[in-house]
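Cross-posting from the chemistry board since nobody answered there.

I work mostly on the small-molecule side, so proteins are not my area. We synthesized flavin-adenine dinucleotide and want a rough idea of how it might sit in this target. Sequence and SMILES are below. Is it possible to get a predicted 3D structure of the two together?
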Amino acid sequence: MTQSAEAAAPRVGTSAHTATFPDKVPDHVDVLIVGAGISGIGGAYHLTQQCAGTSFAVLEAQDGFGGTWLTHRYPGIRSDSDLYTFGYRFKPWTGKPIASAAEIREYLGEVIEDNDLARHIHYGHRIQSASWSSAEQCWTIVAERVDTGEQVRVTANFLWMCQGYYRHSEGYMPEWDGMAEFKGRIVHPQTWPDDLDYAGKKVVVIGSGATAATLVPSLAPTCEHVTVLQRSPTYFIPGRNKIEIADTLRELGICEEWIHEIVRRKILFDQAAFTRRSMTEPEVVKQELLAGVRAHLGPDYNLDPHFMPNYRPWRQRIAFVPDGDLFKGIASGKASVVTDEIERFTEAGIKLKSGETLEADIVVTATGFNLNVLGDIVFNIDGEPLNFADTVTYRGMMFTGVPNMAWVFGYFRASWTLRVDLVADFVCRLLTHMKQRGHRSVVPALRPEDAGMELQPWMDPENFNPGYLMRGMHLLPKRGAKPEWQHSQDYWTEKDELPKIDLEDPAFVYTR
Ligand SMILES: Cc1cc2nc3c(=O)[nH]c(=O)nc-3n(C[C@H](O)[C@H](O)[C@H](O)COP(=O)(O)OP(=O)(O)OC[C@H]3O[C@@H](n4cnc5c(N)ncnc54)[C@H](O)[C@@H]3O)c2cc1C
């Protein structure tokens, strides 16, 4: 970025969640970061710390930072991971472990402010296409300014994809018969209307994942009644929204940097044991989870069928329920759960396959996301269209045949941000390696020893199988049978393996 453009860019204060659009995107940068969510802001921070002197810009389609935490504005929106591990390793988290979207944005705003990142971020720029030229050894990116529709062109040596994994503009809304006849309102949590008045209304929430678990305690006190309509039950972990060891260390006057590190290690240690036990003794873990729910709903509440999932724990994300708030609503009678399937919508509500009808003024479809592969950007390489499904992933970060590009795809069973820091270390090490050796490009390629390796879809459905992933798996890059060629989703091995990656391995093909 030129000095004058830097000076012209507005600052984003810690309390600001939107920003005016900066005047000018630089014509060329060393690194272009796509997206100003947790991954993009983390990437920008690490570049400034580990690759001083590298020019970079962040292009963000929305009018503010935060990504997921800006897009989702439904009542009660909060994390389901603790912020000690969902926060970055470099910035201590000092609040309650489960945080609201506003608190997460506040934290991100401080990272931007403290590290002078705002001048690099260009809001309101939706990237439409990215074209690699082997002759020029760089990417040409075309973005649309969402305020004027003007096309902006920027070239970049390296593309750092931090665009998340789902389409921000709209959530996944299944089609049911009769939806048009329904006289009430149908809303998706991802596009929650500002004017939605649910006071005294009958609300049906379709779905029982983390979103429903968050929404129900927020809606229940105000609406007449909220019914969670689920096709199949979900696992929940009720627990207190506090971490005793953090409070104790604070009482002892330990500094926040130490508390952050100690609490992260403790949480990760406990999570590793829990994940391992979910695989080795799933039935015991299942009974423990059910006992946690029973403790809130009372011994007379029959957990079967509403809270009795038929899959082993951890095949889908397990929703943490802080202070059991979801179950308090159910125990009070203001909220209830129905396990059934939708036959059709009617004028007054939803007719179920069992024959029962749920009356509703408002139906909330907490039915998930539309997976989008690499930001709905049209890619091509030397004029040839690029289909990511034809590529093989290098450790879930890079792709065969795609030069100078890395993608941040976080963890499902641990906090996403743990991988943001790890991938950033890798990208910064790779950029430094290339600079030192005068390499202009790097492209992952299968090695002779990988010939004939069986290729599978991105994720093993036996391992992890949420709906959006199953619906979009055919669009994602392939995985191979060796650790190098897959996203293991295992933080505990990656934290040791990623820093040791041999950058001179023949899986990396460099060009000067
Ligand atoms: C409601 C909800 C709660 C969640 N809670 C947790 C949790 O508690 N713990 C956890 O680990 N994970 C959680 N996740 C997963 C979550 O998405 C990640 O943890 C994390 O916030 C993702 O950050 P990101 O920066 O990678 O992507 P995103 O937050 O998706 O941000 C990507 C950004 O890129 C921008 N972008 C995309 N395409 C383009 C383009 N073409 N041009 C320009 N900009 C573009 C988007 O506008 C967006 O701002 C949650 C997800 C949701 C939806």
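Reply from a structural biologist on the board:
Welcome over. Reading the output above for you: The pocket of flavin-adenine dinucleotide is lined by residues 34-40, 59-62, 67-68, 72, 79-81, 86, 126-127, 162-164, 168, 211, 375-377, 408, 410, 415-416 (CB under 6 Å). The first strand starts at residue 28 and ends at 34. Happy to explain the token format if needed.
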